[in-house]
Write a structure and sequence with these properties.
With about 450 residues, the chain is of the alpha/beta class. The chain has two domains: about 110 residues, Urease, subunit C, domain 1, CATH 2.30.40; about 300 residues, TIM Barrel, CATH 3.20.20.140. Helix 4 packs across helix 5, helix 6 runs parallel beside helix 7 and helix 13 runs parallel beside helix 14. The protein is globular and about 65 Å long. The termini are far apart. The protein binds zinc ion. The site of zinc ion has 4 residues, from loops.
C-alpha cells in the first residue's frame, strides 16, 4: 500500500478482502487510545468477532483482519441523536462514522422507504424513530405538509383523548414520543403550541407505556412548560433573549429534574444565519458531495444574529457546568446541516462550549446509545455491536473527529486507510448476520 501522498491507496483485491463478509469473522483494531464510551484503555487491542465486540485485550491471538490503529483514537460508532431521515441517508451515514441515528420526526411513508433502504444496504446505520409525534392544528411541524415535504399526518384533536392519540402513535411504531412546542422563535411567526395540560397528559400516557417524551422547544418559556410537566429530554437548546431570566431558571430546572438536552448547535446557528459548512475538513470534507456542499451553504436565515448565537452558546455552556447530560445531534437535514458530516461540526461546537473531551465523546457515543438503543450501541462492551470509528491523532492534544481513518460497522470494515493485515482463514467462517435496522421501543 502506497501512503507516500498521505492518503492510502489500496488495490481492489485488498479492498475486497477487507469488506468480504466471510473475512470479518474476527477483526482486531490494534493499538491506539480506546475510549469504550465511558472509560479509556491504553495499549490494548479491540477484538470484534462475528459482528460483536469480543473484548478489549492485551493478548494477541489469531484474527482475520488486523487494522493498525497505533497513534489513533478508537471509539464506538457515532450516534446522531437528532436527525430527520430521508431515503439515501442511512446507507451513507457509516462512511462519516455515524453508525446509529435517532429520527426525531418522520411520517410512515418516509420511514417505510428508510426501512427498505436498510434492508437493501445491510451496512446502513442503525436507527429508530419518534414517528410523527404530537402537534396541534396549525402548529409546527405541520407547515411541512403544505411545503410538500411530508404527506398529511394526524394532529391532536383538542377535544379528543390525549392517551388515545399517544397509543395510536405507539401502535404506528413510535419508539418515543416527541411533542412540539415551537411558539415561533425559529419560524419567525407566532404558532399555536400544546398547552401544559396536554404536555402533562402526553408524558403520563407515554410513561405508562414505558416510552420517553422529548420536547421540541426553542425558547425558555416553552422549555419551562416542557420540563415542569414531565418530559425526559429537550430536542434543542433554547435561544435565550437578552437578559432572559427564564433561561437561567430553565438551566436550574433541567439540572434538578435530570432532563437531557440535545443542543443541535449546528442547526441553531444556521437558523440564526451563521454557517459552519466551511468547517468540514479532512476525510469528512472529501466525502461531502457537491449537492450537500451547496446545502451546507444554504442557511436557515440570511441575516446573521451573532448576539443570539452567543447567548445560545452560553446557555449550553451553563447546562454543561450544571452537569446536564448533553447529546450530540444535528437536526439534519435542516438548512445548512449535512447528514453525517455535520455531526463532526456539532462535536466541535460542543467543545467550543467548554465540554471536556470525555464528555464530548460520551455525548456522541454512549449517552445517546444507551438512551435510545439497546445491544451496546455507543459503547465497546463484550457482546455489544461491533461499530467502531478510528480517528487520527492523540485526542489529548486536540480532538479532530473529521480525520477519520477507519469505520467498522457490525464487524465489517466500511472504510479504512489504516495499514491492514489480512490472514487466510484457517477454516471457512460462518456468514455474519447483517445488522438489523433497529425500530423498537426505548427500554
Ligand atoms: Zn428536528
Amino acid at each position: 500500500m502506497d501512503r507516500s501522498d498521505g492518503r492510502a491507496r489500496r488495490t481492489s483485491d485488498e479492498r475486497r478482502a477487507l469488506t468480504d463478509p466471510s473475512r470479518r469473522c474476527r477483526v482486531r483494531v490494534a493499538g491506539g487510545s480506546i475510549f469504550d464510551g465511558t472509560r479509556w484503555h491504553q495499549d490494548r487491542d479491540l477484538v470484534i468477532e462475528n459482528g460483536l465486540v469480543a473484548g478489549i485485550t492485551a493478548t494477541a491471538s489469531r484474527c482475520d483482519v488486523q487494522l493498525d490503529a497505533r497513534g489513533c483514537l478508537v471509539v464506538p460508532g457515532f450516534v446522531d441523536a437528532h436527525m430527520h431521515l430521508f431515503p439515501g441517508f442511512v446507507s451513507r451515514l457509516p462512511a462519516f462514522g455515524v453508525t446509529a441515528a435517532v429520527d426525531m420526526f418522520s411520517t410512515p411513508n418516509v420511514l417505510d422507504a428508510v426501512r427498505r433502504e436498510s434492508v437493501h444496504h445491510p451496512l446502513s446505520a442503525r436507527w429508530m424513530s419518534a414517528g410523527v409525534g404530537v402537534s396541534v392544528e396549525g402548529g409546527h411541524p405541520r407547515q411541512l405538509i403544505g411545503q410538500g415535504m411530508y404527506e398529511a399526518f394526524p394532529s391532536l384533536d383538542p377535544a379528543g383523548s390525549v392517551a388515545e392519540f399517544v397509543d395510536a402513535r405507539i401502535d404506528e411504531g413510535s419508539a418515543f414520543l416527541k411533542v412540539f412546542l415551537e411558539a415561533g422563535r425559529v419560524a419567525g411567526q407566532v404558532l399555536p403550541v400544546p398547552d401544559a395540560d396536554i404536555v402533562r397528559a402526553v408524558c403520563q400516557a407515554a410513561h405508562r407505556r414505558g416510552l420517553r417524551v422529548i420536547a421540541h422547544v426553542t425558547d425558555a418559556a416553552g422549555g419551562l412548560v416542557a420540563v415542569r410537566n414531565g418530559v425526559d429530554g429537550l430536542a434543542h437548546a433554547v435561544i435565550p433573549g437578552p437578559d432572559d431570566a427564564a433561561a437561567e431558571e430553565l438551566v436550574r430546572e433541567i439540572a434538578e429534574r435530570g432532563v437531557f438536552v440535545i443542543p443541535t448547535l449546528v442547526a441553531i446557528s444556521s437558523a440564526l444565519g451563521i454557517g459552519h459548512g466551511e468547517l468540514f475538513a479532512g476525510t469528512v470534507a472529501r466525502r461531502v458531495n457537491q449537492a450537500w456542499t451547496a446545502h451546507a451553504r444554504h442557511l436557515g436565515r440570511t441575516t446573521a444574529d451573532p448576539a443570539a448565537w452567543e447567548r445560545t452558546q452560553r446557555f449550553v455552556a451553563e447546562l454543561a457546568c450544571a452537569g446536564v447530560q448533553l447529546l450530540a445531534g444535528t437536526d439534519a437535514a435542516f438548512p445548512g446541516v449535512v447528514p453525517g458530516a455535520s455531526l463532526h461540526v456539532e462535536v466541535a461546537l460542543l467543545q467550543s462550549c467548554g465540554l471536556p473531551l470525555d464528555d464530548v465523546l460520551t455525548a456522541v457515543t454512549s449517552a445517546p446509545g444507551s438512551l435510545f438503543f439497546t445491544d451496546g450501541v455507543g459503547r465497546l462492551v463484550p457482546g455489544g455491536v461491533g461499530d467502531v470509528v478510528v480517528i487520527d491523532g492523540d485526542p489529548q492534544d486536540q480532538l479532530q473527529t473529521q480525520r477519520l481513518r477507519a469505520v467498522v460497522m457490525a464487524g465489517a470494515v466500511v472504510t479504512s486507510d489504516l495499514d491492514a493485515a489480512v490472514e487466510e482463514p484457517a477454516e471457512r467462517a460462518s456468514p455474519v448476520t447483517a445488522p438489523s435496522p433497529i425500530f423498537r421501543r426505548s427500554p
